[in-house]
């Protein structure tokens, strides 16, 4: 059925403008993939299990960056598709959730690998592994700088947050952390001879990554599952309506994109205001609400 007779009052695209973000993630993806290839090749050649494991670890992050790029592409492609009731804003949260799950899998793999190496220590060609690990750290720092400005800007403002970009940034931080821990462990193993510190550092790094992963899963899943705003906020709306001799019978407010919310209210009053006035009251308390639907019933005295 054609929707040509519908007179839309506003755009229903509440997505994120991600052209700049896409370019940044592409650069980081190719840098990560390059170092992944180098570490796997060097790890195989030198017999360093630590380097080989870190190479495959970076490989999972390359796959996560592909998820990020796909989410951006999909959101842009369907930006004006009316089949999506509130646009494609949640695609970024879906990409962030998928990447967070990948982070958790990476952490689990690191723990398993580290425990195996604690039980059965592996010989390591320290000199070669240290050189490649330092190269990996340098690339990770460059990648973090590429993504840092965006992440810092959005985390310290009330502008929109891009969960997909945040997931990419956390992947880079995870890579940087594992590179630092690997270098510390390799240096201790080479100059002090404490070989078991290497898998121990792997477990420590994995636990930190688990923490990041859990936080991102918790944050993105709340949006994907249409979690309501705080009850205290809904109470503020109710109090404001009561002051206008209006009772709220039902209210739902949830996030539909990074900086956009939707609200549905059922109201009744014996002296009802105009719908526009009710919307203004909601907008004053919930400035991020971009879509408001109100059902108004007039009470008979």
SSE arrangement:
Elements: H1 19-46, H2 49-77, H3 91-119, H4 126-155, H5 163-191, H6 197-224, H7 231-242, E1 246-257, E2 260-269, H8 275-285, E3 289-298
Helix pairs in contact: 1-2, 1-4, 2-3, 2-5, 3-5, 3-6, 4-5, 5-6, 7-8
Properties at a glance:
3 strands, 3-stranded mixed sheet, 11% strand, single chain, 301 residues
Written overview of the protein:
This protein is mainly alpha-helical. It has 8 helices and 3 strands. The chain has helices at 19-46, 49-77, 91-119, 126-155, 163-191, 197-224, 231-242, 275-285, and strands at 246-257, 260-269, 289-298. A 3-stranded mixed beta sheet has the order 1-2-3, with helices on one face. Helix 1 (19-46) packs antiparallel against helix 2 and helix 7 (231-242) packs antiparallel against helix 8 (275-285). The two termini are 43 Å apart.
End-to-end separation in angstroms reads 43 Å
Main beta sheet, described? 3 strands, mixed
Order of helices and strands: HHHHHHHEEHE
- What is the strand tally? 3
Shape: elongated
Helical content stands at: 55-70%
Low-confidence parts, pLDDT < 50 over ≥5 residues? 151-160
Q: What structural category do the secondary elements indicate?
A: mainly alpha
Q: Given the structure, what is the number of helices?
A: 8
Strand order of the largest sheet: 1-2-3
* Cα-atom radius of gyration: 25 Å
Content of β-strand: 5-15%
Average residue-wise pLDDT: 78
């Amino acid at each position: 059925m054609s929707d040509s007779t519908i007179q839309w009052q506003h755009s229903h695209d509440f997505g994120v403008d991600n052209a700049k973000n896409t370019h940044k993630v592409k650069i980081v993806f190719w840098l990560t993939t390059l170092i992944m290839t180098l570490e796997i090749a060097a790890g195989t050649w030198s017999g360093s299990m630590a380097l080989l494991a870190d190479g495959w670890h970076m490989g999972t992050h390359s796959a996560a960056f592909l998820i990020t790029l796909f989410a951006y592409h999909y959101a842009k492609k369907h930006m004006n598709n009316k089949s999506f009731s509130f646009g494609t804003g949640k695609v970024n949260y879906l990409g962030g959730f998928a990447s967070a799950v990948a982070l958790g899998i990476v952490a689990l793999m690191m723990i398993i690998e580290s425990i195996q190496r604690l039980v059965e220590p592996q010989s390591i060609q320290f000199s070669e592994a240290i050189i490649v690990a330092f190269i990996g750290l340098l690339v990770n720092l460059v990648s973090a700088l590429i993504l840092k400005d965006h992440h810092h800007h959005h985390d310290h403002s009330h502008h929109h947050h891009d969960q997909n970009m945040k997931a990419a940034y956390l992947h880079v931080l995870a890579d940087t952390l594992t590179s630092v821990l690997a270098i510390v462990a390799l240096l201790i193993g080479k100059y002090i001879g404490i070989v078991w510190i290497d898998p121990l550092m792997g477990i420590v790094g994995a636990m930190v990554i688990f923490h990041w992963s859990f936080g991102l899963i918790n944050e993105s899943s709340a949006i994907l599952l249409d979690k309501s705003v705080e009850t205290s906020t809904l109470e503020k709306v109710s109090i404001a309506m009561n002051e206008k001799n209006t009772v709220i019978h039902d209210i739902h407010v949830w996030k539909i994109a990074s900086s956009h919310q939707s609200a549905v209210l059922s109201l009744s009053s014996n002296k009802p205001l105009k719908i526009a006035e009710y919307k203004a009251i909601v907008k004053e308390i919930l400035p991020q609400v971009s879509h408001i639907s109100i059902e108004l019933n007039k009470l008979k005295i």
